[in-house]
Amino acid sequence: MSFTRDVEADRIIKGLIAINVVVFVFGLMRQVPNMGGEPVPLPMVYGSYSFEDCFDLGEYWRLITYQFVHADMGHILFNMIALWIFGRAVCSMMGAFRFLLFYLGCGVVGALFSSLLMSQGLCMREELAALSEYIPFWKMIPMVGASGSIYGVIAAAAVMFPYARVALWFPPIEMSVRTFALVVLAVALVVIAMNWNNAGGEAGHLGGMLCGFAVMGIWVLYRKLTWNRR
């Protein structure tokens, strides 16, 4: 995708990427043992989201902090590349403040949507659901990553720039942003429906993307109404 350079948008996106990278590097340098004695990055311990930590224990900040914590190098690399490609264009259209609210809001909705589906017995294997006798296991499943936020940004880009072209590295093909958004949406739906590996994570992706489409739908409707009044 190629768009007119927007200095403010570049600064916002670079800032978000920098925060994610700093948190990831800090997690590599500072780890603590979990209950099994295995080392876990400190940001993942205090920044990941789970329904139990957030709502049962009242640690509501996790709805925001989990969006800046990543599991491994591949996870953060994919997310930051997608944020750079799509985020600058969307931010330049929305403006910095509205973009940040939109970005973080999609991440919050993604986490809540994942918890909602898991609470209904979706996105979780039956053998995991029976692990805890006292607390429903779905409440304890941790979630990390900016994917829900970024999927919302992809949805916004698909509405704003539907015919812009994006070139994929793997597979090496080119498609419109709208087609790309529909493909990743379809992948999330299939993974959730088949309850494949990381179905809970895909539910977060789906929630973020649905939030993005919903907000953009309201935006389009608002523009049409205001235009008709002129």
TrEMBL record:
InterPro entries membership: Peptidase_S54_rhomboid_dom, Rhomboid-like_sf, Rhomboid_protease_S54
Subcellular location: Membrane
Membrane-traversing stretches: 12-29, 68-87, 99-120, 140-163, 175-197, 203-222
GO cellular component annotations of the record: membrane
Domain Peptidase S54 rhomboid: 58-216
Family: Belongs to the peptidase S54 family.
Protein name, UniProt field: Peptidase s54 rhomboid domain
UniProt source species: Akkermansia glycaniphila
